[in-house]
Design goal:
One of its GO terms (cellular component) is mitochondrion. Helix 1 packs antiparallel against helix 3 and helix 2 packs across helix 3. The protein has 4 helices and no strands.
Length: 170
């Protein structure tokens, strides 16, 4: 019951993070200081991706890369931050899920260890009980044999367990 509710909660958080990311995209270009910051990030990202593409396709990498115009840079950086926000939320939820499942697995393993220890202890107790029973059986057998030896030897004469008188004639 807990697992489906948790999964539903993570799905809800991911769904909620998308409108928040869209709001971040809209607000990113409005604040002047933040706007300049994201423009610089967008320009650096543009230079990096263009250089990687040129290397991949075998073109010259020392050619001048034209900077993006300000509007396009704000748009790209806003999209980048929006996607970064969504992936960050998804990553945090994934890490939390992995951590939660590893704790659950550790609890299961601890329970298995305790059950194994209980079974080992029960096995030791049963082995001890078996030894005691074997010893008692051995003692009873020795006692019975001693009784039979004495009975046949006739040393129990006159004892309530002694040989019957009719056997003395034998």
């Amino acid at each position: 019951m807990v697992l489906p509710l948790f999964k539903l909660g993570t799905l809800a958080l991911r769904t909620i993070s998308k409108p928040i990311a869209n709001r971040l995209k809209k607000e990113a270009g409005l604040h002047p200081t933040f706007r300049q910051f994201i423009i610089n990030i967008a320009q650096a990202n543009h230079r990096f991706t263009t250089t990687v593409q040129r290397r991949f396709y075998g073109h010259a990498t020392n050619a001048l890369i034209r900077p993006l115009d300000e509007g396009r840079a704000v748009q790209l950086a806003s999209e980048l931050f929006g996607e970064l926000f969504v992936f960050t939320v998804a990553g945090i939820l994934l890490i939390y899920e992995v951590h939660r499942s590893s704790r659950a697995e550790a609890r299961k393993e601890e329970k298995r260890k305790q059950e194994m220890e209980a079974l080992k202890q029960k096995n030791k107790d049963l082995e001890r009980e078996l030894e005691v029973l074997k010893y008692r059986q051995s003692a009873q057998a020795r006692g019975y044999l001693d009784f039979v030896k004495l009975w046949h030897a006739g040393t129990l004469e006159g004892h309530k367990w002694g040989r019957p008188s009719y056997m003395n004639a034998m």
